[in-house]
C-alpha cells in the first residue's frame, strides 16, 4: 500500500500529535513492547496502535511509546512483511546479535 503524498498535518500528525509524543516521553519513558517482553529500552516514537489510515484515533488509548526496532517491526507487520533474516513465530529475530536480543544475551 502506498502512503499518500500529503503533509504530516493532513495525515493527522500535527500539533496534537506532537503534544501527545511529549506527554508519552515524559510519562511512559520506556518502549511499551520491550517492557511487555521483559526488556528495558527507552522509547522515542509515539505510535498509533491502530493506524490513523485504518480508522485509528488521536486518543491516548490509541497511542503507545515504542523504540525504533519495535516501531519498524510493527510497520513491517502492518504491511504484511517480516524483518530480514530468521525470525521466531512472533516475527522477532532469532539472531542473538540483533538489537532486540542484546538484552536477553547480555
Largest sheet: 2 strands, antiparallel
What structural class do you assign from the helix and strand content?
A: mainly alpha
| Assembly context of the chains | single chain
- Mean pLDDT across the residues is 84
Helix content: 25-40%
Listing every helix as H and every strand as E from the N terminus to the C terminus, the arrangement reads HHEEHH
Provide the gyration radius in Å: 15 Å
Count helical runs. Answer: 4
- The geometry reads as globular
Task: Report how far apart the termini are.
Answer: 38 Å
Task: Tell me what you see in this structure.
The chain has 106 residues and is mostly helical. It has one domain. 34% of the residues lie in helices and 8% in strands. A two-stranded antiparallel sheet has the order 1-2. It is globular, with a radius of gyration of 15 Å. This is HNH endonuclease.
What is the topological layout?
Elements: H1 15-27, H2 32-36, E1 45-48, E2 63-66, H3 68-78, H4 99-105
Give the key terms.
106 residues, mainly alpha, 4 helices
Amino acid at each position: 500500500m502506498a502512503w499518500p503524498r500529503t503533509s504530516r498535518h493532513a495525515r493527522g500528525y500535527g500539533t496534537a500529535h506532537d503534544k501527545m509524543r511529549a506527554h508519552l516521553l515524559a510519562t511512559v519513558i520506556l518502549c511499551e513492547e520491550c517492557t511487555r517482553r521483559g526488556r528495558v529500552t527507552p522509547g522515542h516514537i509515539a505510535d498509533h496502535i491502530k493506524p490513523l489510515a485504518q480508522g485509528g484515533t488521536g486518543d491516548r488509548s490509541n497511542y503507545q511509546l515504542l523504540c525504533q526496532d519495535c516501531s519498524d517491526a510493527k510497520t513491517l507487520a502492518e504491511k504484511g512483511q517480516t524483518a530480514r533474516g530468521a525470525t521466531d513465530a512472533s516475527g522477532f529475530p532469532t539472531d542473538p546479535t540483533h538489537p532486540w536480543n542484546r538484552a536477553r544475551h547480555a
